[in-house]
Each structure stands twice: as structure tokens, then as C-alpha cells.
Amino acid sequence: MNTYLLEIRLELLRLLRTPAFALPMFLLPVGTYLLFAFAVAGEMVARDPDAGRFMFGGFSVMAVTMAALFATCPNLALEREQGLLTLKRAQPAPPGAWLAAKMVAGVVCGTLAYLPILVLAAATGQARLDGAQLAAMSAVLVAGTVPFCALGLMLGALTSGSAAPAYANLAYLPGLYLSGVFFPLPASMHFQTVFWPHFHLDQLAFAAGGVAKFRWIAPEMAVAVLLGFTLLCSGVALHRLKRTI
Q1: Contacts of 137 by beta carbon, 8 Å cutoff, 6+ apart
Q2: CA pair distance 132, 137, nearest whole angstrom
Q3: Predicted TM-score (pTM) of this structure
Q4: Which among 177, 161, 179, 152 has a CA at the least distance from the CA of 237?
Q5: Is there a contact between 57 and 211 (Cβ–Cβ < 8 Å)?
Q6: What is the band of 244 on the pLDDT scale with cuts at 50, 70, 90?
Q7: At 169, phi and psi to the nearest 5?
């Protein structure tokens, strides 16, 4: 247990002490939330409470998922390419310690990126949600970091260190926009939203918060899709890592 805790502590310290990672991941989500939900669409949100809830859900999904993905993918790719994972296998430490550290670090980074948005929404009342709703949605959003940590592990196991950030963006950004979590999509594009994990996490968060207007699928289906996505990405990552380290 001490080995696991030490590995987690060191992984978190490395991420938090890297300004190139920490500053964009923690400032970009809350900055864009302030820009769009307050400055650009502030009048619309004041007239329509549902607009505030929609934006809170969308930018919260962005915060937890982006930080979780980029906390795991590039570092794993670099460590694998430089032979550090092979070195760790030769050390007298549990073989799963580094993997657990990366998963926990992804969850923690996702939570830290989401907290400023939560505090802002709770302090201003912009989302028009009570404390119980915010707590329920927060629990789902934090748990929703796990599928994106698994995606980061898969991409980190498959790509080189220099190409990992580009592939992470390529895998992440289309789903962020095409899933409809940022802005309503035309009816002709609704069919493809179910293919993106961002959409299912957004649906679960609204279900937990009791927001019925933006729910299109059953929570059970969203849970099944996210669980299957996590298992698929984790399985591919572990299979690839066994062959390369």
C-alpha cells in the first residue's frame, strides 16, 4: 500500500509542477465557462434558467474529461518510449502501482479542473441548481473521469511521445463538439451523438441532478456505454503494454 501511495503522490507532484500541463488544464475550462456563460450568453441565461443548466453541464464535462485524458496520455507515451516502464518492471515494486497512479492522478486532475466551475456556479446561482443537485452531478462527473483516463492509457500505449498530444486532441475534440454538450445540434445530427462518451457522461450528470429537459436516453444505457468504453480502452492499453515493455 505504501508503494501505491508513493507512486500516486509522485505522479501528482509531477503533473502539478508542470506549468505546461497544469495551467491550460485548470484555467481553460473555467475561463471558457466565464466567457460564454456569463459574458456572451449572460442575458439569455438570465431569461432562461435551462440555458444556465445546459452550459454548466457542458463545461463541467469538458473540465473533468480533458484534464483526465491529458493527465494520462502524453506522460505514458513518453515513459514507454524512453524505457521507463521497462525499468519499473525490474524494480521490487507492485507491477500495477504505476498504472494505479496514473488512473488516480487523472481522476484528481479532472476533479481539480472542475472545482472552479462548481464554486462559480454555486456562488453565483447561474446554473439554478440547489446543493443536492450540484452534489449529485459532481459525484457523477468525478466518476466520469475514469473512462477518459482509460482512453488516455490506450492512446499513450499506442502512440509515440511526440505524437501523443496530437492524437489525444484528435480523439477528444470532435466528440466534445459533435456530442452536443456545448451547443444544441440540428435534428439531422442527433443520430451520431450516442457514439461519443462525452454525450453519455452529460446525460448521466443531468439525470443525477434531476434535469429532465436535456435527457434523451435512459441512465442505464449511458452507464452501459461508458462501462463498455472503459473496458475496451483498458483492454487495448494493457494488451499493447504487455507487448512493448
Answers
A1: 57, 60, 129, 205, 206, 208, 209
A2: 9
A3: 0.91
A4: 152
A5: yes
A6: low
A7: -65, -40
